[in-house]
Amino acid sequence: MDENTEYYSANAQRFFEATVGVDMSTLHQSFLSRLPTRARILDAGCGSGRDAKAFAALGHEVSAFDASDELARLASDYCGVAVQARSFVDVTETAAYDGIWCCASLLHVPLAEIEQVIRQLLRALRPGGCLYLSFKLGTGERVHDGRRFTDADEPGLRAWLKASGEVATIDTWVTSDRRPERSEQWINGLATRAPARSLVTGGPDPFMPHLSREMSQATELDIAVAFTKATGLRMLLPELEAALTPLEGAVAPRGRVRMLTSDYLDVTDPEALRSLLLLQQKGGEVKVFTTKGGSFHLKAYIFGRSADGELVEGAAFIGSSNISRQALWDGLEWNYRVAYPADKGFLEARQRFEELFAHPKSLPLTHAWIEDYERRRIPPPQAIAPGSQEYEPPPQPSSVQLAALAALEDTREAGYRRGLVVLATGLGKTWLAAFDAGRMDARRVLFVAHREEILSQAAETFLRIRPTSRVGYYMGHRRDVEVDVLCASVQTLGRAAHLERFAPDHFDYVVIDEFHHAAAATYRRLLGHFVPRFMLGLTATPDRTDQSDILSLCDDNLVFTTNLFDGIQAGLLAPFHYFGISDDSVDYREVPWRNGRFDPEELSNKLATLARARHALDQWRERGLKRTVAFCASVRHAEYMAAQFNKVGAVSAAVYSGSKLGRSEAIERLRSGLLSVIFSVDLFNEGVDLPSIDTVMLLRPTESKILFLQQLGRGLRRSEEKTHLVVLDFIGNHQSFLQKPQALFGVGSTYKDLAEFGRQAEQGRLELPDGCYVNYDLKIIDLLKSLDSGGAEKDYEALRASLGRRPALAEFYRAGASLQVLRRQHGSWFELVRRFDDLDEAERRVVDDIGSFLAEVETTAMTKSFKMVLLEAFLEMDGLQRPPAIDALVERSWEVLRRRKNLMGDLPDAIASLPDGRSPEWRRYWLDNPVNAWIGANRGKDAAASFLIQDDRFHFGVALQPADVVAADSLLQELVDYRLAAYEVRRQNDAAASNVIAFAPRAKSAMEIPYFPNLRIACGHFRAGRADAEEHRALPAAYGHLDATRHFIARATGNSMDGGKNPIRDGDYLLLELLASGNAGSITGTVMAIERHDDAGGDNQYLLRVVTKTKTGAYVLKANNPDYEDLPANDEMKTLARLKAVVHPLDLAVGQTFAREDIPGLFGETFNQAIWNVGHVVLGEQRVHILLVTLNKQGKSQEHRYHDHWIDEQTFHWQSQNATTPSGKRGREIVGQGALGTQIHLFIREARLVNGKGAPFVYQGRATYEAHTGSAPMSVTFSL
Q1: Residue 736, Cβ density class (10 Å: 0-12 exposed, 13-18 middle, ≥19 buried)
Q2: How far is residue 1261's CA from residue 1241's CA, in Å, rounded to a whole number?
Q3: CA-derived radius of gyration, the chain
Q4: Cβ–Cβ under 8 Å, residues 648 and 155
Q5: How would you label 914-944 residue by residue, b for 16+ Cβ within 10 Å and e otherwise?
């Protein structure tokens, strides 16, 4: 019982006595004058029963109710009418009353519910009936004397009534309170329900909106038509599918759908029948009436709404419209409406449908029936009915899709069998998959996703491209196996029992659309089972961190990327004007956040408030907007917002599954101007383009970047009426909102990236497509800038906030976080994860049990990919659970290499050219390399092995608890994904470097020597180090003659040598020379790396000190930093290596490959598109010039094609930008390099793009000015 009902129950007698004698005769006359002589009247919220008694005395048939049990009893005794105790939400009658009287009773209905209650009351009226209602004059909600009130004024009352769409006339007037000693003003209203229109005539009154309105409310939908064309069926399908979908919070479908069509005259499309077959798989019932030369020419649409098993209301349309676009929307078609309960002819139509649906000639629709019909079908040569020859050819690929298709062909020709394509929302990634499968002549296609809406859209898309194919579903209880295109949920198909129903090569082409991280193991199991000719991954998110999971599944082969900005620039999507608005009216910290989601009930409570509605309304009105779709968090939120907007005359409607206004009708009303705003709950998130809308209002937080992009994408469809899309995005004080700049603008996932974005937005330096505009409220910019902090923990925290879960190591790596900092601070990845308490109980046990092995996998040396390829194959075969046979593991390893085409380059030509993974030569090679490495054959005899071979099977070397195997598998897979991803990048960079120099390969002026990133030389006290992760780096000739067998590079850690003339600081790169008998010489007075073996820990420890000698001949290890004590040498120590030099970090980068966005980090800067997307960057404070040169400038305008080329192997000719002169600041600093101390760094690439993506640059080193000619532009010669 709510507070109002409690109040009236407690004060029933007092309220009865105060109101029963009030004279209401004037108002009675206004109301009764619109009713029949003996009308049926409902006194809704009758209070004392005063008015019910007056109506009954005049001979009317009166029903009455009140929410208070006690008032209902008193009223029944007084008026002689049996007054029911019920509330407004219980009014479910349909067309039952001539008049409904709501005198001062609706004023206790909450504002968020008022529109829905008025709709229910109008539905309870007969067409032409009258509704009286009154409120205290005012606006908004308030509490007085323990009761909640909703006040109204004339605009608000009219808006509520108009929102129903069923009111013919509205009269309003103001009166004074008739009770003694009361001075309130009252707003009164009389509304007449529109009379029922029986005939729908088409033309300006198309049939489709009428169907949509009835279908959106119906629980039984029965349709029987002679012809069904695909063009018309596509218009009906959204409403039919919605009827088969559970309402919010329900489990069972909202309704039943039955379709009966025919083969009469062979007009029905086979494609339409296959779409109906998909509808049948979702729970609909579809039959075909076989005419066999006879006739079947009926067109009947019958919709009923039942409650508690009884038919409440219904509408049937009998007329001339078959299912075609012309018949439903464009043509002049007459369809007569029969309404129930007013017209009992509805029941007769329903009964005749039942008989026809059960007729022996009405056959169930099956694939076999459609294929037989297709063979014998001979369509009429001339049109025999409107729309009977309608045909809409499938769309052709767009320019972006053609480029993606070409890239896919190239990647297959190169030997890849998996690949990822990134296409922004609205650019047709599902269509791309259908086009590509067709180009491959794939006979059987598997399309996998984690949401039913995606699968439904995919099925319809593939059917459009392949109208003669069998298309089916494999999700939930729907298991259509014998089809050409199978759309399957990963949750269902990914189970082992279901996978076993299919041979590994059953499908030629597999598509993974998006990726749900929680189902990662299931995706891998699925892809480990199938061996298609090609596997395509699809995603719409441009962020490389978000792509990490699906990119790993695609063997790290990123084939093609086009983001939202590219689509706008190409003219395929509309430009946008984005307003990031501070949402101060909600404190999101008070809303529970669990598992990456807000608590729905609490969120709805916070969002459906008057303050927030007014804030949204003010922002919307300020910009003079119209044709808006607003996304809400719940039905209650949508209804509340619609009520508030309607109240001030902004005609709005809440549209959701089961709403009074159907989706199709809502879109048409918006297009025609009858509606200004649609407040939507989920219905418009995906698969629906709304070209007519010009505004998207984001009134709810989105828990994923994909959902945000989908909502934005609804309005980006181009139309002649729209120059741009306005986006009103309400941004609150919660981490989930940080995803939005990452999704829309491609901002990185670290806090530093977001802070830099905030600065760019503040200064107006965002790089946007033509016609786009962005404005953030200053509070949001200040919030973003306040995030400016770095470090492994901050990077982890930011990424976790962005993803809504703990990140995987590959995601952390792709986000650009520093793994060196991570390991320096935490030792290993999983120790950092443990620090944030992000390991579950089983994962903690695994890290405790096999942490050293996991650390080895994370950092083990990888001059080749073989160790990780073997682990990948081992995990694909579920090796921790069932150790694989050696021969099977060797063969699967070959398959992994073949899929990851880049990695085949690690093999000698003689091995790579072997026919398959079963050859003896391959077996021998693989056993000699990674297998031997993992079983310890390459280590000392006392070293522990990670794996062992028993009974010709490859076993993990630690006995795991059965309950921990799944966790161990997941953690190990996470590390393998990261190592392969990092190795692929390294290989690609090496490959790209070989293509950069067009003149000729430069003679190597640098010697490659080993670099050990895990070997830290302590500048403080002895520190354990590991030399197991060997890499190679080249150093310039200035470092002298180097020998890869004697010289190596390691990092300093600590500050004991930070002093004197040549300080060595924490993190410095050290060039060291191993001591041997031939080069030992004198060590006194030199800086040496000292090695000591720790018997207790089993590790070697290293220390950097100056070796000195006392007068007694004893050696002392001296620190350059006076804060550290000297150490006497002892017999446990030995000299390992002599310090040759401290290496400048940039010298290590010579010959290395860098993406443009990674170059700023070499100079301690953050990437900023406005600064770094040019060819000549100047860092003024450092007096550093960075030249970013593209040798082949195809695609650039003539004025930007500078003349850059190698003169010889050590000399480069560079031409400046057209504005650069020798007398200008930039020119002076180049020409006067020697005197001014200017540093000039040269980065070069061959071409702007590689496989449709920005090509990386190779760092050539420091350039020295030699000469120049000309001005604006300058031609400069540099030596290197």
Answers
A1: buried
A2: 6
A3: 38
A4: yes
A5: eeebeeeebbebbbebbbebbbbeeeeeeee
E strands, 308-391, in order? 310-319, 335-340, 362-364
Q: Which CATH homologous superfamily contains domain 399-562?
A: P-loop containing nucleotide triphosphate hydrolases (3.40.50.300)
Q: Provide long-range contacts, Cβ within 8 A and 24+ apart, for 473-482.
A: 473/278, 473/281, 473/282, 474/498, 478/281, 478/282, 480/281, 482/367
* Burial zone of 1078 (CB within 10 Å; 0-12 exposed, 13-18 middle, 19+ buried): exposed
User: In terms of Cα–Cα distance, which of 930, 995, 1074, 1019 is closest to 1250?
Assistant: 995
Specify the pairing of strand 40-44 against strand 61-66: parallel
What are the residue ranges spanned by the domains of the chain? 3-193, 199-376, 399-562, 576-788, 839-993, 1006-1143, 1151-1279
Distance CA 566, CA 573 (A): 9
CA 937, CA 945: separation in Å to the nearest integer? 8
Instruction: Find the helix or strand (DSSP H, E) in which 1276 lies.
Output: strand 1275-1279
**3-state class (DSSP) for residue 350:** helix
Please give the full DSSP string across 179-245, using - where no structure is assigned.
STT---EEEEEEEEEPPPP-EE-BTTB-HHHHHHHHHHH-SEEEEEES-B-HHHHHHHHHHHHHHTS
1006-1143: CATH number: 2.10.109.10
Answer yes or no: are the C-beta atoms of 463 and 233 closer than 8 Å: no
Q: Superfamily assignment of 576-788 in CATH?
A: P-loop containing nucleotide triphosphate hydrolases (3.40.50.300)
- Start-to-end CA span in the chain (Å): 85
Answer yes or no: CATH 1.10.3470 is held by domain 1151-1279: no
User: Same fold for the domain at 3-193 and the one at 576-788?
Assistant: yes
Determine the pLDDT at residue 685. Answer: 52
State residue 438's pLDDT score: 96
Instruction: Give the C-alpha separation, 987 to 1049, whole Å.
Output: 21
With tokens 């007009």, the residue in question is 267
Pairing of strands 485-489, 445-449: parallel
| Cα–Cα distances in angstroms (integers) from residue 72 to residues 82, 145, 1047, in the given order | 8, 22, 98
CATH class of 199-376: alpha beta
Phi, psi of 957 (to 5 degrees): -80, -5
**pLDDT of the residue at 993:** 38
- Distance, in Å, from the CA atom of 347 to the CA atom of 316, rounded to the nearest integer, reads 9
Which CATH number is 3-193's, of 3.40.980.10, 3.40.710.10, 3.10.20.740, 3.40.50.150?
A: 3.40.50.150
Q: Which of 145, 126, 123 is nearest to 136 (CA)?
A: 145
Name residues whose C-beta falls within 8 Å of residue 583's C-beta, 6 or more positions apart in sequence.
Answer: 612, 615, 730, 731, 732, 733
Residue owning tokens 């010579």: 1150
Q: Give strand ranges (E) for 543-694.
A: 558-562, 576-582, 593-594, 597-598, 628-631, 652-655, 677-680
Name residue, tokens 């924490």: 1066
**Nearest Cα residue to 942 out of 808, 1098, 1064, 1088:** 1098
- Collect the ranges in the chain with pLDDT lower than 50: 992-1004, 1023-1029, 1096-1098, 1194-1201
Which distant-in-sequence residues (6+ apart) come within 8 Å of 713 by Cβ? 424, 425, 426, 564, 573
